[in-house]
Specification:
Elements lengths: L18 H6 L1 H17 L4 H8 L4 E5 L9 E5 L5 H31 L3 H31 L19 H23 L4 H23 L3 H28 L5 H32 L6 H63 L2 H12 L7
Antiparallel strand pairs: 1-2
Helix pairs in contact: 2-3, 2-4, 4-5, 4-6, 5-6, 5-8, 6-7, 8-9, 9-10
């Protein structure tokens, strides 16, 4: 009996509200819930409740456009308890987007390459994270350029804790938290193996904790810079992983180039994150933030960077040891095959020493069929 592939729909119609029914139709179910919120926003009686989940709240300034001021004033926001409702709603949106990417892109790629179960699971994980990290990088990088943080680094800590956010920057933080929350139910919806749950839950928990702490303690400016740096390294790493999954472990120039870029970007991002953290928490926020908060934030940041660097070095050394073992096992096979090649070369050399007429006669004699005596 052929088992269904992870995350794909089968032709069978399972019983309503069964586990199989929920897994196969979870995107449709969640999209209906999202539509309920959107329709509720259009009805006057339910609009305040729906707006609590869809709209962003806790604005500290901003004026709607009027005849006297057609452009109005941009709205600036701060963090608050109502953001939890927005995180819940946008986590539902993330589930729908996850299903769209899975069905229309990743499933088609897996059908084309006929991957094994382990490679298929890695493709689904890295494929989703590549899209998310690219979105984080582009959206967060645009926010950094708009706010002027890139060319004015002291702005990351100047005026702390009064750091209001623009609409796009606050929505970026809400989507970050929503994405890592939605990865937990996706383990069930995508039929991920139980032995992979611990690693993925740990990754989601660490990422969500970092986002929640930076957002709650008003470190949104330095937080967006650190997350954008981290997303750059993660995007390169998962792109390199996708290349290995789809092309196999080929030791060609493309694989070596991507591996070199991955290592260089990873190390550079770790160093830049440490420098940025020391500048912000040790020097920039001195006197503005409590000493305990600064020391705790810097300790968490340094510990995380050291942990990632240690894992990267360990994985690199492990891969080099495996490559050396493969290189040592190859010459033995080549030695066994060498005598056959030398015999062929000897025959060719003997023929090359003869004149052209004799070489042609030898070729015709080989091609001539042997006559059978009656």
């Amino acid at each position: 009996m052929v088992k269904p592939v992870i995350g794909r729909k089968t032709n069978k119609n399972p019983p309503i509200l069964s586990h199989e029914f929920v897994i196969q139709n979870h995107a449709d179910i969640v999209s209906c819930v999202v539509m309920v919120f959107l329709v509720g926003l259009m009805v006057q009686s339910t609009s305040p409740i729906a707006g609590l989940f869809i709209s962003l709240h806790h604005n500290v300034s901003g004026v709607e456009p009027t005849r006297e001021a057609p452009k109005g004033e941009p709205f600036l926001y701060e963090s608050g308890w109502k953001d939890g409702c927005a995180v819940f709603f946008y986590s539902l949106v993330c589930i729908v987007m996850h299903a769209i990417i899975q069905e229309y892109f990743l499933d088609k790629i897996s059908k084309k390459f006929h991957l094994s179960k382990s490679r298929l699971s890695a493709l689904n994980e890295s494929g989703q994270l590549v899209v998310f990290q690219l979105m984080t990088l582009v959206w967060g990088g645009d926010a950094i350029l708009r706010e002027g943080f890139l060319f004015n680094i002291p702005q990351l800590w100047d005026g702390y804790p009064n750091h209001p956010m623009t609409f796009l920057l606050k929505l970026w933080w809400v989507v970050q938290a929503a994405y890592w929350i939605h990865t937990i139910p996706e383990l069930y919806f995508q039929r991920v193996k139980k032995d992979e749950w611990a690693g993925r839950i740990r990754q989601a928990f660490v990422a969500f904790t970092f986002v929640a702490l930076a957002y709650s303690f008003k470190f949104q400016r330095v937080g967006v810079a650190l997350i954008v740096l981290h997303s750059l390294a993660e995007f390169i790493a998962h792109s390199y992983r996708l290349n290995t999954i789809l092309r196999g472990e080929r030791e060609d120039y493309l694989d070596k180039f991507l591996g070199l870029v991955n290592g260089a970007v990873f190390v550079s991002v770790r160093l830049c994150s440490l420098v940025l953290g020391v500048l912000t928490f040790y020097f920039g926020l001195a006197g503005a933030a409590p000493l305990l908060v600064r020391v705790a934030a810097l300790s968490i940041l340094v510990s995380f960077q050291v942990y990632l660097m240690f894992n990267f070095i360990s994985e690199t050394m492990k891969q080099r040891q495996e490559a050396r073992q493969l290189a040592q096992s190859k010459p033995k096979k080549e030695r066994k095959e060498k005598p056959k090649k030398e015999k062929v070369k000897k025959v060719q050399n003997e023929e090359s020493d003869l004149p052209e007429v004799d070489q042609n006669t030898n070729k015709t004699l080989r091609q001539r069929p042997i006559a059978v005596k009656k």
